[in-house]
């Protein structure tokens, strides 16, 4: 959803400002990362000293400063000339310098981590501009009574909206308002495949009302209204909000009981595009298909792209390489990463040692209880291995009663069910050994927590040396400023792109771990109690973060195409965490663009990206032609006859913000074109990080612009020095910089032959 440049997201962005006495100064943000050894007072002093180095005196520095950022990170905003800003950008202690332009408001902590509140507070957006943006959410519906969907402060429904408020079970016209301006539902495809909704024996509403919780959560994350002082059982207390909190919502319920039929999905896309939404948020996916033309998400998103509508979609939760879904280049594909908030339910052992645990556990143990391993509490005739997983009917109630049971992660039963089984057997608590526990947060029916391998070893050692080992599971506490953050979630689906490996996917990563948002109070599948808000993880949670930011960009730059918005988000993304080091996976292993795409989303920088890689439908057609698309296939996609022209444009020449080459045979040149978005003349210079075993040269190495809207083309020339193994990739990057903006593209190369 970050230090080095990632916590640059936490910067306050001010509005462009002209001093009456110094006409060439503007309001810039100078971000300098972690406070490190500085306290607030010393950070302010250091800020003044740095600023004085470019203004010429300490007094002038004090006059120039607008804001000091000195409580949780270091930086300042000040009135500077472009030349002074560039000098500061070149200083080793400065991470980024950018002009203050845009605004936003406050949110759940994931949005605070991204700094969205500051955008709303300081930008020059016309008051109504964001409220003219419509976010279409294709999901499991919405719980309209939630405070997160209040219409307070919103004006009339935008005239451009052509949608409907479709009534149904427990959903009347009164459930739509100036926030939820449209609601539709689709079940024909689902029922054709699985039978009537009634046959599932589960609570449902044949309407846009959400009985699952997923759709409510994603909608409120993208564009929920501001709600203060909310929490889950007192945990993660704060202000809940969506990224674009003044934007409108159009709801398209196409999913039932966690599944979504293709026919329903395509109908939802059809309506959403016709209704005139600006952004489509889709936290839905499937196993990648070999061709785009047989994927309804690709088809629906393509038509949205044609109409100028950006589709933001989740990459999936499949853990492994080649599993990223929604990988069409006209879809913005979002991976999941952490925020700097942990929810710790720790364990106090009898030897006074405290082990870190993870979980949403509001229940309080009044005293310590004896520990017993599930394998040591097997019911008569049950193998110890089965009992270790705490499966149904495997535990001996006599042995378990009044004790905390230590269980092992099970492939069949989830942790909520396991805690229920322990409780039904008479256990008073559960500790479960769970790799990457920090990525998975559940609510339990008894005091319970998840521990990672290191804590598991310590717990086992304690239990092995103590005759009567005891422990107490402590209620969850909220821990802020956790490090490192972000890290990549273990479950987040990874590249390479199954269909077209030269298009690096996912595109970007955003907060998707421990995300607090609105919930359906009748959804008890993942929660033991009815709640209006919930904390869950997944790329489903990451996607609406990006959707909300995209809505803000659309309000600030209404003429931008979907590709332009994608480019702004991707080329300004950050690849460092709040320790200033490269983003890693949750186990500490190195991450690559196949984990996070271009990096972690940076809302501030995306507002003013400097350069844009744009492409349109005609470019997409050339891309598809290069992959052997037939006239029939293109007709299915475009609804008109298309004949591929010879010679074909190589697919790696699609003007994508990232640069990928698959099965390179000898030297190769890749073409790109950038459009300048700025004021006055400027010069951008290329900086390349070579992939291992590949030499990269950019021609020309500098791009000179005189006015906004000007386009410049360049070539990226590759010379392979050694082959890569099989289908593996090596990575580098290309960054264009003018001293203020840094426009970064990841490079991924697979070398077949020299």
UniProtKB/TrEMBL annotation:
<feature type="domain" description="Inhibitor I9">
    <location>
        <begin position="28"/>
        <end position="106"/>
    </location>
</feature>
<keyword id="KW-0732">Signal</keyword>
<dbReference type="InterPro" id="IPR045051">
    <property type="entry name" value="SBT"/>
</dbReference>
<keyword id="KW-0720">Serine protease</keyword>
<dbReference type="Pfam" id="PF17766">
    <property type="entry name" value="fn3_6"/>
</dbReference>
<feature type="signal peptide">
    <location>
        <begin position="1"/>
        <end position="18"/>
    </location>
</feature>
<dbReference type="InterPro" id="IPR015500">
    <property type="entry name" value="Peptidase_S8_subtilisin-rel"/>
</dbReference>
<dbReference type="InterPro" id="IPR036852">
    <property type="entry name" value="Peptidase_S8/S53_dom_sf"/>
</dbReference>
<dbReference type="InterPro" id="IPR041469">
    <property type="entry name" value="Subtilisin-like_FN3"/>
</dbReference>
<dbReference type="GO" id="GO:0006508">
    <property type="term" value="P:proteolysis"/>
</dbReference>
<dbReference type="InterPro" id="IPR023828">
    <property type="entry name" value="Peptidase_S8_Ser-AS"/>
</dbReference>
<feature type="domain" description="Subtilisin-like protease fibronectin type-III">
    <location>
        <begin position="653"/>
        <end position="749"/>
    </location>
</feature>
<feature type="active site" description="Charge relay system">
    <location>
        <position position="540"/>
    </location>
</feature>
<keyword id="KW-0378">Hydrolase</keyword>
<dbReference type="InterPro" id="IPR010259">
    <property type="entry name" value="S8pro/Inhibitor_I9"/>
</dbReference>
<keyword id="KW-0645">Protease</keyword>
<dbReference type="Pfam" id="PF05922">
    <property type="entry name" value="Inhibitor_I9"/>
</dbReference>
<feature type="active site" description="Charge relay system">
    <location>
        <position position="214"/>
    </location>
</feature>
<dbReference type="InterPro" id="IPR034197">
    <property type="entry name" value="Peptidases_S8_3"/>
</dbReference>
<protein>
    <recommendedName>
        <fullName>Subtilisin-like protease fibronectin type-III domain-containing protein</fullName>
    </recommendedName>
</protein>
<dbReference type="InterPro" id="IPR037045">
    <property type="entry name" value="S8pro/Inhibitor_I9_sf"/>
</dbReference>
<dbReference type="InterPro" id="IPR000209">
    <property type="entry name" value="Peptidase_S8/S53_dom"/>
</dbReference>
<dbReference type="Pfam" id="PF00082">
    <property type="entry name" value="Peptidase_S8"/>
</dbReference>
<feature type="domain" description="Peptidase S8/S53">
    <location>
        <begin position="131"/>
        <end position="579"/>
    </location>
</feature>
<dbReference type="GO" id="GO:0004252">
    <property type="term" value="F:serine-type endopeptidase activity"/>
</dbReference>
<feature type="active site" description="Charge relay system">
    <location>
        <position position="139"/>
    </location>
</feature>
<comment type="similarity">
    <text>Belongs to the peptidase S8 family.</text>
</comment>
